[in-house]
TrEMBL record:
InterPro entries xref list: MFS_dom, MFS_sugar_transport-like, MFS_trans_sf, MFS_Transporter
Places the protein is found: Cell membrane
UniProt source species: Nesterenkonia cremea
Name assigned to this protein: MFS transporter
Keyword annotations from UniProtKB, A to Z: Membrane, Transmembrane, Transmembrane helix
Amino acid sequence: MQTSERHPSLPLRRARWAAMAAFATNGALPASLLARYAEVKETLGLSPALFGVLVVGLGLGGALVLHLPGIVSRRLGVARSATFGTVWIGGCLILAAAGVALGNPWLALAGLILAGAGDAVVDVAQNSQGIRVQEQYGRSLLNSMHAGWSIGAAVGGAVGTLAALGGVPLLAHMTLWSAVCVTTMALCARRFLTEAQPPPAADQTDPAAPQITHRPTGRQMILILAPLALVALAGISVEDIGNNWSAVLLSAERDVAAASAGVGLSVLLAAQFIGRLLGDRVIDRLGSRATLLISLAAVTVGIFGAAWAPNVGLTLAGLALAGLGCAVTVPIAFATADSVPGLAAHSGVTWISWIMRTAALGLSPAIGLMSQGGSLPLALSAVALIAVVALLLQLRPAHR
């Protein structure tokens, strides 16, 4: 039975804040190294091409583990998986930092790939715990937890920047920061809810909820998870555009000075953060399906608008709308996948997470190839079609 949101128990309230802190910790740990990537490139003397190989290490590691994160969470439980996974990430990032200190790019790459594998495990564990807390509260909370990840990433990036400005050696910095993050995660995991009680079944009155009451066949799995995977891809495509292409769009297509072109990413991330803070309230008021339809429509209009806007102001408005729309897509995809009856615990979250990570590896290169063959606005418009298809699939009746 779900706990009333007006009278949550003390353990439940503690579990909520522990889950949010776990998300923040998971964002903070790798971001502290990412903030020093320019230094890493210079120290290792990497060409742009080789540096490009290095930076995909985290994503590649997450893609290579396939369904392992779900198995780990089922075997160890989400609390131990989050704790041990964070220990693993910290140790591997220290290994990567050691590779930089030794001038060995292959050791650095190995550390990043291994850290990415651990990050996939922690990602599934913390989202599974967030979904369980959300179910026990009886209202949407997962979006605010993802906002906690954004806060943690910002803090981790700031710590990395300050360490670089202060001349702190990368290896010493990552060793100390890993110790802080591992300790924080271990303390958070102690407050996680236990998994003795299975989560409640999906609400069969919700048109967005899966309508299957037995173990899904392979075909049913595809029919259920493929649309959700597209929802998640629509969300991360906006993040990819912001991270890798917003500055290029503003400088190359809108004649913004290169030194100022980073404003596009700042606007998009700020809008996404606001969307994550407000997303739970919107879902509670409108329902997850209506919220998702509005969000996918916003992503579509936002990307198309940013791609073809005639001036800088409208381009930034389009990026902001896309950032606002993508804020709830991944949390909704995770929560819906987790509620599919008949799937092993954590399997839905695991597969959505894996598809996201795998697709993200090819997303930016695909945009680059399409831009080279046509133009960046055309490439971004092609990416917007992911959200269009996801929206159309969500408009179809649920499969029974």
